[in-house]
Amino acid sequence: MMTPTAVTPLAPATRRWAPERAVDVAALLRPLRRGPGDPCLRLGPDGAWLAANTATGPGSLHLAVSAGEVTASAWGPGADPLLASVPALLGAEDDDSGFVAHHPLVAEVRRRKPTLRLGATGRVWDVLLAAVLEQKVTGTEAHRSWRDLAQRFGTRLPGPVCAPPTPTAVLGITDWQWHKAGVDGARRRAVIAAAQVACRLERAAELKGVEGRLLLRRVPGIGVWTAAEVAQRAWGDPDAVSVGDFHVPGLVGHALLGRKLDDAGMLEVLAPYAGHRHRAVRHILSAGLGKPRYGPRFSPRDFRHL
């Protein structure tokens, strides 16, 4: 196994931030975690560790909350951008004032979890890479590939985390190395196409909304589902619904109607939440309800042994 590029530890840059409302760091960062063994994000009793790529380079970030104040420490070339992004990352820029609960379940979750907000990284590449790896495979497969690529081609940083591979690193990965990481040809081609225009794709986080998603979809292999998954995390898009997801329509249907829905049915039931459809889904998923199982789990494939 290749050793990832390492950043020499130096004294961290720090900032303290007093949010206007209580923040649940773990809940806000959980959408960024790619499986329980994600090497780029650690959530624990001592706070959260996050590693990311920024415009000035990779960096690691530690977040801890005490007496209502967030203490952030960052290392690496990306330390300053990471510190600057802390309020948005923890939902400070998310405005849910226009959100109205049209279902009792959604109203109850909003009452019980008033701190539920949408965080935004402000950066596209890392979440785009992860989303493409999750296309049309099980979570187990995608998370295994994510771990392998981050550990072999990412950047080792201070703390228990490493940054995901940069676009340049991705373009240097050979066909055999992709195969060993369990990434099939279709996802490989989409990642490479995105890496080739990664700098231009960062503008999607500035455009936001439909325009930002459309910019992402100009890349071959980036469809509606992938663009929505990126939008939800990169700029906290409150209306980006994950159409095409294997689980979400069923979860929404069983939670709100007691029956399974397809994508069209999900969009119909979410229509009253226009402008906040993803926010509604987040409230529904936060209720922790499941859906009936009608058969055995789908068996993950392992492309490494094909």
TrEMBL record:
Keywords carried by this UniProt record: DNA damage, DNA repair
Molecular function via GO: alkylated DNA binding; DNA-3-methyladenine glycosylase activity; DNA-7-methylguanine glycosylase activity
GO biological process: base-excision repair, AP site formation; DNA alkylation repair
A single cellular component GO annotation: protein-DNA complex
Keyword DNA repair among UniProt keywords: yes
Domain of life the protein comes from: Bacteria
Protein name from the UniProt record: 3-methyladenine DNA glycosylase/8-oxoguanine DNA glycosylase
Protein species of origin: Actinokineospora spheciospongiae
